[in-house]
Amino acid sequence: MNYVDFLLWVRGPGFQIALAIFIFGITLRLFEIFLMGSNPTYSEPRGSAMQGGLRTIITRSKIDHTKFERSTLTILLGYTFHIGYLLVLFFYEPHIMFFRELLGFGWPNISTPIISGLSVLTILILLGILFHRVESAILRFLSTPEDYFVWFVTFLPVLTGYMAFHHMLLPYPVMLAFHILSVEILMVVFPFTKLMHAFTVPLARWYNGANAGRKGVEA
Questions:
Q1: pTM for this prediction
Q2: Domain span at residue 85?
Q3: Number of structural domains the chain divides into
Q4: Residue 51 counted as domain residue
Q5: CB atoms < 10 A from the CB of 23, how many?
């Protein structure tokens, strides 16, 4: 297989396989969660579960000042990494073109120089997260092999994407193929690792907030 065949495979069958596993895995995990159900509630509602769920999702997404004072670096790195990663993923023009082909619609893009700068920032932040995890005795003790694996599969698409865009190390078609392959690896492992928190955290916050809202209290 030459590099042209490799690029065609990752853009075709490779992506279809990864997308199928991604959708199946997320559906399975969510089905497992909803299958657990919840205990029936017989008391009269004193408030709105809908409002309570939405309120808790919003309030729990804000930075807690007490936690920020205790874990300033961890929170700063976490928030800036997520923002940078999502902006690069959803607002880089070639990515938007891909989503348009997949979904049938697109949205305005952010200029390439800004995306390039965000990519560098995200790479540096991810390296900072890894260094902080290794340097902190507590985080190092709590970390598992899965944590480092998740970091690696998250880091690789940003690095290879930046290198492909700037024609670094390997010919552009080869680096582009590796970039797409790294994204597909991320998609495959996503539902079966801690990356699934992207779906489960909002659900957990909604559940807690809805229960509290029904009781007429704030979570």
A1: 0.86
A2: 46-215
A3: 1
A4: yes
A5: 12
d(CA 111, CA 147): 33
The H or E element containing residue 14 is: helix 13-36
pLDDT tens digit sequence for 9-43: 999 999 999 999 999 999 999 888 888 766 666 66
Residue for token digits 């007429």? 216
DSSP string computed for 165-179? HTT-SS-HHHHHHHH
User: Which residue, among 65, 91, 66, 61, has the nearest Cα to 79 in the 3D structure?
Assistant: 61
CA 209 to chain CA centroid, Å, is: 23
Q: Which residues contact 29 (CB under 8 A, 6 or more apart)?
A: 191, 192, 196, 199, 200
Nearest Cα residue to 63 out of 53, 51, 77, 52: 77
Q: Where are the alpha helices (DSSP H) in the chain?
A: 3-11, 13-36, 49-61, 65-70, 72-91, 93-103, 112-135, 137-142, 145-165, 172-189, 197-215
pLDDT digits (tens, 9 = 90+) for 55-80: 777 777 777 677 666 677 778 888 89
Copy the structure tokens of residue 32: 């497992």
User: Does residue 38 form part of some domain?
Assistant: no
Token readout for 173 is: 């078609």
